[in-house]
Fold this sequence. Notes:
By secondary structure, the protein is α+β, with helices and mostly antiparallel strands. The chain is built from 14 helices and 14 strands. The chain folds into four domains: 2-65, no CATH class; 78-179, Arc Repressor Mutant, subunit A (Orthogonal Bundle); 200-263; 279-401, no CATH class. The strands form five sheets. It has a three-stranded antiparallel β-sheet. The protein has a three-stranded antiparallel β-sheet with strand order 6-8-7. Helix 4 crosses helix 6. It is globular and about 65 Å long. Mean pLDDT is 85; it is low at 360-388.
Amino acid sequence: MADDHDIALETERRRAIRALLATPLLLPASDEFALVRRHAEWLRAWFGAFLGYRLVVEAGFARLFKPGLGPGLGRPLLRTSGPFTPRMYAYLALTTAVLITCPEQVLLSQLVADVRAAAVEAGIDVDDARRPAERRALGAALRQMVAWSVLREEQGSVSGYADDEQAEALLTVDRDIAAHLLATAPGRARSPEEFVVQAADAGPGGSRHRVRRRLCEQPVVYVDDLTAADRVWLRREQRRDERSFLDYAGLQAELRAEGAAMLDPDEALTDVTFPGGGTVAQAALLTIGVLAGRLRPEPGRLVVGVPVPDGLLDEILTDLTERHARRWAGQYVADPVLLREAVVALLVTMGLMAWSGPTVADAEPEDQVPASVADRAVDARGVRGDTPDGTLLLLAAAARYAPAEVVR
């Protein structure tokens, strides 16, 4: 009986950990919310010790504060029409600031006026000449607040504001959730760049927390993305942590000389599933398989990234498009550039490809962390244009998608 109780306890705690990792703002509607409440004290201690994350559990929500991973390593909020834009993020921050101190109930028109006033006070230009675009950006922020239960629509809806400036709604504000939205207070930073760096500070946990966070939050972690101290810690502790990740988070470690990845058999801890459905995902899977088969590094060498020859990616995608044109979305069949950008963006996001650049191993002094080959971010449409020389690299994790060699 004692063994059965222990197994049930471990299962409940693992479910709670996974729920919070997947949804850092967990609401009572979640099936796992009751488990998080039940094991709140244990979870606070585990997240604090293992990842250096702070956990707040209240009657109406549970908030796991993830400080961030550093420049180029974030994942955007996603809408049905695409990721949040910088303007939407600005309005999200302004709305948060207003809601923390506003009345429990507020009219939509008053909330909009207060947000615009906060923007002016913060020195943000509210462009009246672009009012439709401004309304759409603010409207996206308001809808996100509704999704997070910071705002509850009593009469009317915030959705109408994007198309109609005169739209009205009566809203109830949950100031407690609003006060717990920001993982890192931006007031200490003198620039956006400094804020991103400060938000990723691992604090006293140092390499222990920094490496574990990246293993939890990134598809793959390469050794040349890590500082010398972090590489030493990973190599020394990876076997011990392999068991911890499996027991507590249900993640299976794949450890290689080039780096490490945590695989989730349930595919529940990611917002991007790969392999996946749809034209872009199918094209990316087929493309990475061909590249991995053609660009195998020489045996015996430790190679994290292999340059993709000019024209090879276009050649592969052209051939694939001709073969699968009937099944693929017409917009991508008709626009090879759009397909290429989308495929590269997905493969970069998954840590299978990267734009060439300096690695952390090149940095001096040891704790200086420049942009690494896996740090190249993607924007809403594809790969950013600020790459050093435009050279794509096929990264080591792509080998798992290489066709099997036939032994004769």
